[in-house]
Write a structure and sequence with these properties.
The protein is mostly beta strands and 473 residues long. It has 5 helices and 31 strands. It binds CU-O-CU linkage and copper (II) ion.
């Protein structure tokens, strides 16, 4: 079968947990995908039925994959009953292809269509989702998009894992009128939890009815079949709307090689990942003996154990471990400081443009989330000329972490909480820590001209106004 034909077909199929290892197509080929948004009722776990929106009939949407240098042509059809567009998260592409309704294109009306054509890059684990300024994204319009780098170290097996949680209908309504009734949801024994004061919150605006990996809850999740001796690559995306997740594979250390798809200068071995909303990590493990182990997204939610899948060697599939949350007590978790190495006290370097952004809001149940005291669209913009060097320094005055994201660029994290990183981390989302945390980005204005959003990837905060933009003049 010709590759284009194969890809056309596979785009309509359910996401497979196991990825075909290393396809090798010629870079000149144009890869065509069809993507259709429709309403979908799906049942991630027994007793939970969710009425939402989905791309091409599945949550998450089809797994898209190209080799670096290949061009894609995505024919998007909107049949979901409301205006939408498709944003390609983490890609540097022409601004008109960025898929932000009302900013980079008019929204595609119900019954309408739009053709996205671009060369996906940079290489790595990226994703796509709708980008409406409303709660549409709560309802299932997202998927993973991998731009394969032929120079990457080969894996014996590879799995794409999309972590997401199904909001309860009640809390969607509550979030929309700002009356949160959601329980406190936080990883058990996490450093955040231990450092929390009474009244602190962590992405708790929304209550969730199910916790999924690739659209299913344990024990409905597809198991990951691996062989003894295999070196396995996991591509993990946190597509949750509001919450940070810790991810752990029982009995194994994880070697992190890529953050938001970008290679780390030095891979880092940890017991658990910490993944903010919108972040991706590529994590590897080696199967040393026969067995079955639980891979789990950790939170203190009573249903948290459901966000799990079994990793097993041949013949061990029936030995499903008990589904109970693993503890994070005494566990070494990923952090930017560990990945980048701390080089001492941070001194703000020279740059053509320096912005200080104070993140505030949410006080006393307020729905307003602000940057320097203003909510979108009144927020201060960053106006750049081609070639400008830009520094953005965030200070978080709220009691929640904020996963700050920039469209159309890769930035480098050069500072975390006052300490300089020895090896700046190339990313497109960064968690700015609650209660006074600071973090600095460095980037060059070398992307195509246009309007590139900069916002908190917690949907509730974004909609509350924690958003601005980088504008090329
Ligand atoms: Cu995942 Cu505005 O982006
Ligand atoms: Cu936020």
């Amino acid at each position: 079968m010709r590759r284009t034909a194969f890809l056309r077909r596979s785009a309509g199929a359910m996401i497979a947990a196991a990825l075909p290892v290393a396809s090798r197509a010629s870079p000149s080929e144009l890869v065509r995908y069809d993507l259709t948004a429709r309403r979908l009722r799906f049942a991630p776990s027994p007793g939970v039925s969710f009425a939402g929106l989905a791309f091409s009939g599945s949550v998450p949407g089809p797994f898209l994959r190209v080799t670096r240098g290949q061009r894609v042509c995505v024919h998007y059809r909107n049949r979901c009953g409301e205006p939408t567009a498709v944003h390609w998260h983490g890609m540097i592409l022409p601004n008109a292809m960025d898929g932000v309704s009302g900013i980079t294109q008019p929204p595609v009306p119900d019954g309408g269509s739009f053709v996205y054509e671009f060369t996906p890059g940079p290489a790595g684990t990226r994703w796509y989702h709708d980008h409406e300024y409303n709660m549409a994204s709560m309802r299932g319009l997202f998927g993973m998009f991998v731009v394969e780098d032929p120079l990457d170290e080969p894996a014996d097996a590879e799995f794409a894992l999309v972590f997401h949680d199904v909001p309860s209908p009640r809390t969607i309504a509550a979030a929309m009128d700002g009356t949160s009734d959601a329980p406190m949801v936080d990883p058990i024994g996490s450093p955040e939890m231990r450092g929390m004061r009474a009244g602190d919150r962590m992405g708790d605006e929304i209550g969730y009815a199910a916790h999924c990996i690739n659209g299913a809850s344990y024990p409905k999740t597809a198991p990951l079949a691996v062989n003894v001796g295999a070196r396995v690559r996991l591509r993990i995306l946190n597509a949750n709307l509001t919450e940070t997740r810790y991810v752990r594979l029982a009995g194994h250390r994880l070697r992190v090689t890529h953050a938001d798809g970008n290679p780390l200068e030095q891979p880092l071995e940890v017991d658990a990942l910490r993944i903010g909303v919108g972040e991706r990590y590529d994590a590897w493990f080696e199967v040393r003996k026969p067995g079955a182990w639980l891979l789990q997204g950790l939170s203190s939610d009573p249903l948290g154990f459901e966000q799990a899948a079994v990793v097993h060697t041949p013949g061990m599939a029936t030995l499903s471990p008990l589904a109970a949350p693993q503890s994070l007590e005494g566990v070494e978790a990923f952090s930017y400081e560990k990945a980048g190495g701390v080089a001492g006290r941070f001194v703000l370097p020279y740059a053509g443009i320096v912005k200080h952004f104070l993140l505030e809001g949410g006080a006393y149940g307020s729905r307003a989330w602000t940057i320097n005291g203003k909510s979108w669209p009144a927020t201060e913009k960053i106006v750049v000329a081609r070639g400008d060097r830009v520094l953005v320094r965030f200070t978080n005055k709220t009691d929640m972490d904020h996963p700050m994201h920039l469209h159309g660029h890769t930035f480098e994290i050069i500072e975390v909480d006052g300490r300089a990183l020895a090896r700046p981390l190339a990313k497109d989302v960064s968690l700015v820590r609650a209660n006074g945390g600071t973090l600095t980005w460095r980037f060059a204005a070398t992307s195509p001209a246009g309007r590139w959003l900069l916002h908190c990837h917690n949907d509730v905060h974004m909609m509350g106004g924690m958003m601005t933009e980088v504008v090329y003049r």
